[in-house]
Amino acid sequence: MTTRLLSTLSWSCLLLAFAACDDAKPTPQDAVDDTTEVVARECATTAGPLRAAPLTLQFAAGPGPDSKELLVNNGGQAGNLCWTNGAHWRLEPADAPFTIGDATQKGEAIDWLAPGDNAALQVSLGADVLQSGEAMLFIVSENGGESQVRLSWVLDENLHELQITPASATFFAAVGESMTLRLDLANTGLALMALESPAGVVVEGDVALEVGPLKVGTSPVDRIAAGEAATLDITFSPTAVMEGSGALHFFSGRTRVATLPISWVSICVGADCPDGLVERRCVATGAEDTVSLTFAHKLSLLSDASEGDATFQTFIAGDGSAMDIGSGSWPFSSFGDGTDLIMPGLDPAFTPFSASPARVSGYSDGSQFCYFVFEQPVAGTTLGINFTFVGLPTLAAATAQNDADWQAMLASLRVLLSRQGLILGTVRTFDLDATNAALYTVARSYDDLDALQRLSKPPLSQNLGEVLRLNVFLVQDIDIPGSDAVGISPMPGVAGAHGIANSGLVVAASDYLGLTSSDFDNFRSECRTQNPPNNCYQEYSGNDALASVIVHEAGHFLALPHTSEFNGYEFDSFGDTPECPDATAIDSVPCADEENFMFPMVRGLRTQNFSHDQILRVLGNPLIRP
Length: 626
Ligand SMILES: [Zn+2]
What we know:
By secondary structure, the chain is of the alpha+beta class. It folds into four domains: about 40-155, Sandwich (Immunoglobulin-like), CATH 2.60.40.10; about 160-265, Immunoglobulins (Immunoglobulin-like, Sandwich), CATH 2.60.40; about 275-375, GOLD domain (Jelly Rolls); about 380-620, 3-Layer(aba) Sandwich (Collagenase (Catalytic Domain)). The chain is built from ten helices and 35 strands. The strands form ten sheets. The chain has a five-stranded mixed sheet, sandwiched between helices. A four-stranded antiparallel sheet has the order 1-3-8-6, with no helix packed on it. A hairpin with a 5-residue loop joins strand 9 (about 135-140) and strand 10. Helix 4 packs across helix 9. The site of zinc ion has 4 residues, from helix 9.
């Protein structure tokens, strides 16, 4: 009976080189009997060396199982190698994802080997092993033989492709509150993807996943089949004022399958702040929201990371009458990428509004937007400015205090604002670092402007008096193809935000600072084509002209449009601003609005002003402080 085979190993007939393969297949009952009989008689007390070939096996990890055959050989002459009672094989690490033999139970694959004989052992990597790794397989006979085989398994990274919508995420929440953003995840690769949470989603940046304010997945996504989709909620719950940026890395096993750039901003709200925001309210898609306001309140609207239109449908004054707050659709797009703040021009001087609480009603037809209600006991008249010098050849923060041209410009700015009833508040000056200054001292594209605005200085403290300051970047030149602009500002800008797009305005200083009007290109060209009353032959100071340009751009930042546009048919909605009668020829005809700060061209230096309605909109902006 030394040549009998067990019925469970009929495949080994192909490998064992003796006549027993021709034997009739035993019945299961025979097999049980045989086992007992063979083991009892054939197991030697000493045996030859146990050999295995090949010494390494490599497997393909991925969606399906992968099997390889291992030959086990009794290389000696001393006697049979036996596997009856002891451990037949073991894996290190023990949880390596393999099955050995036809089953996981020992004793079913090989029970003994005669000297010189081979047996085949099936080694199978399980399905859905979505990482690479290595293990050792030890094959041990109970009577002395041992061999080891290295097993490795490698995941093809091309199997995995995770698409995330949106492609980047910005979180904005007040301290003590939270904002949840839902990510749509789509497995566009070929294989099942295992996202272990939290280990499968790693945050890079200042925020630690486990201990920081960013929590990933209240119901974590752990597996997405090929072609399938899932959603993942990410919640930002700041416990302190902070801002920063980083990335979320998504891993399947050890393979990074996607990266989501993220940024976060939190601000101080409520009683803990020295001078607080009082409320943050959000309006869901398709929903309406109404809030009561008094004169003491200002509104700052901020979208939450997605596109849409926030529509202020109605504004009901305290006496029940509807009033115009610059109603209509206020488009917005995601924070950091578009117009983030929607600032309807609340009219703080409107009597019913100041007499008793009013209501503003917002409606979102796009997606959720949020807004902040600022508590401000009086309307305020003061505008504080942070100037950043971007590679100016003659001006730096350290020299500004003693720079005659700079001081002349500030004096002029102070006068221009005071004529409108506004006060130039504290002025701070900063230098942009040399690397970025070299990049952006000539702004050549709107991307340059965005990049520059992202470099605005964070507030010195979280006091709203520090937070609510205007960022002004002074570059040498703006040289954007198709634009003759000497200054560019978002309209409106994002009041109170720093370090993001649309958080500041940009003015070309070297066109004006320290020069006189006969040095200006536009002055000379205007004089070639114009006759008086355009003041062409009256010299004026470039420092004064720069102050005037800054007021114009600040007007845009505070939500003022041009009085007349070059296209000849667009005008602002104010009832008390004049319009240019022939705005298609705005650069060559006298215009009734050319003495308004929001006239779209630099035309000499003349008395300039804002209208009553323009000023009311400006005063409604959170940047105007008590
Ligand atoms: Zn303009």
